[in-house]
Amino acid sequence: ASAAKANTSLNNPTNACALSFGLTLLNSSLKRSKIDVTDESLVEMADPYLRLLTHCVRFSSDSNAVVLSLRSLGILLRLNLPSVSKFARSLGPSILDHITSSHAASNTQSDLVQSCFRALTLLVSHKKFSGRGQNGHEQICGTLPLSSEQMQALLSLLHSAVRESDHHNATFGLIKAILNKKYMSSEFYDLMDIVQNLSVQSMKETIRLQSSQIFLQYLIDYPMGSQRLERHLQQAILNCEYEYEGGRLSAIELVASIISKFPPQILEERSQLFFLPLVLRLVNDDSQKCKDAVSGAIASLLKRSSTDTVQSLYEYIKRWSVASGPDSLPMQKASAQLFGLFVDSRPDYIRGGSTGALLVASIADTLQDKSLDWELAYFNLTCVEKISNQLQSLLPDSHHIWPMLVTLLKHPHPPVMQVSSRIIYCKLSTLDASKLLDSGSFVASNPGSLHEMASNLCRQLDVEDSVFVEPTSLLAIKNLSWLFRAIRHSPELCYREQDSPEDDGEIQKKDPCRWLMTRLSNIARPKDRRR
Fold first, then answer.
1. In this predicted model, which residue has the larger pLDDT, 135 or 85?
2. What is the torsion angle, in degrees rounded to the nearest 10, for the CA atoms of residue 111, residue 114, residue 116 and residue 117?
3. 497 C-beta neighbours (distance < 10 Å), count
4. What average pLDDT does range 27-40 have in this prediction?
5. Residue 332's closest CA among 342, 318, 315?
6. Dihedral angle over CA of 153, 129, 136, 220, nearest 10
7. CA distances from 135 to 16, 149, 175, 359 (A)
8. pLDDT mean across residues, the chain
9. What is the C-alpha to C-alpha distance for residues 306 and 273, in angstroms, rounded to an integer?
10. Is 517 helix (H, G, I), strand (E, B) or coil?
11. Is the Cβ–Cβ distance between 489 and 442 less than 8 Å?
12. Which of 156, 299, 489, 525 stands the most exposed, by the fewest C-beta atoms within 10 Å?
């Protein structure tokens, strides 16, 4: 009777108009005020409003008044109000009633439903409900402002709300709050399956990102059996094959986050579950963004794996690198890329024993093949570049790989030319161009290499506009600048004894600097604005 009387009084046209005006003023004032949540006097003054606003939510039939009440509650519930636990048990079910009303249920993205979700989020995550039961369903629900039946109804509504394409912030906020409470029910497990699918299949990047973050937190913190965890991980790996790039990239980034945040013991037990599918994506994916993300995920896996696990994975790669047959090229390409990832992420393992020396010898043998596929050559050279940057002791000046790198400067494919130029440039920048004779460098131990490098670099510049690559040309100019100084100081290192100049006459032997300048002048002579 008292509830009916309150309902009638509150919804009287005159009272309803005054109520709407008062709520508008209150909401406006709260939004403009900078409330200090630690101010005890402010908490004491704000606490009575909780009863009034709860009364409005429970009994008002004006949806605008309910929305204004919920928005005001959204500000006040951030305070540690003393009467929250007293009114939450009536406020929570009333909010749920508004969500399940026939009008709101037809539009889960209405202002009313979103305001309800936000208010429930604050209620569920409020300090007054921070305790957690130890055993039994009812004990866990005792830490929430809703009963078990009401929570099941709420989760069912979230199943449909989370699939909507707009206004997900409030929906995801409520899901996070329930997740933090570790509320356990079959409906919540089903909801997480939807969230996992949404992290890949949503057309909006922000929704994919939010879904991935929630699902990652669920995997790390939420209680679940080993079989359920295994199923989720397998699905996460399977999602990396999604047909659209955006969803595929989101799935790969989720797997990378799992690898970086899972406990080491769980990761060790499932290293092959992650490693082999990621390698397949590295080889087969058409998107460079996805390939880069896969490389990052594999590198993270290697960094967090024990030496024994790294050893077992490295053995796989070694077998792929020596594969033969008509279908062996993709495996060789994959192994070359993975060798580079091992150098980047586990230089300690590559440095140990004879692993690094054998790797460099294997790469040198591969690069000797004149009919080598250009992509395979590129991946091997990329690995050499990483070794040169991180493990310089594996590439002494006496190693026979340096003359090969000089020869590869004239490779017809720009990527191969460019990575060869980078390696050569990094090496030359450590040498004093005026003191090469006593340097013991590969330049001094291979007479004629100065001329060969200069000739090959000139060839990189002497190209048509259609195949012009600016980064490669800039590297060539930097290398030629160093070579000019070296040639001026050590002209005797320019040619081998058996060399005999053909087109340029005796000018080569008499003045290599003049030969180089003549060659560059001839290159610049055609009408090419880039040159």
1. 85
2. 180
3. 7
4. 76
5. 318
6. 90
7. 46, 18, 22, 56
8. 85
9. 16
10. helix
11. no
12. 525
Q: DSSP letter for 465, please.
A: G
Distance between CA atoms of residues 208 and 162, nearest Å: 12
**Which residues lie below 8 Å from residue 487, measured CB to CB, with a gap of 6+?**
450, 454, 494, 512, 513, 516
Handedness of CA 224, 227, 230, 236 (dihedral sign): negative
| CA 350 – CA 75 distance, rounded (Å) | 57
Could you give the CA distance from residue 438 to residue 417 in angstroms, rounded to a whole number?
29
What is the largest distance, in Å, between two alpha-carbon atoms of the chain? 116
Q: Which of 5-19, 222-236, 397-411 has the lowest mean pLDDT?
A: 5-19
Beta-carbon contacts of 434 under 8 Å, excluding residues fewer than 6 positions away, are 485, 486, 489
Please say whether the beta carbons of 332 and 323 come within 8 A.
Answer: yes
The residue with tokens 């040309």 is 473
Q: Residue 134's pLDDT is what? A: 42
Query: What would the two tokens of residue 457 be?
Result: 């670099």
Instruction: Give the integer Cα–Cα distance in Å for 276 and 240.
Output: 12
**Token pair belonging to 344:** 């980047």
Could you give the 3-state DSSP secondary structure of residue 135? coil
pLDDT in tens, 208-246: 999 999 999 999 999 988 999 999 999 999 999 999 999
End-to-end Cα separation, the chain, in angstroms: 93
Backbone φ, ψ for residue 270 (5° rounding):
-120, 25
Between CA 59 and CA 61 the distance in angstroms is 6
3-state SS, residue 373: coil
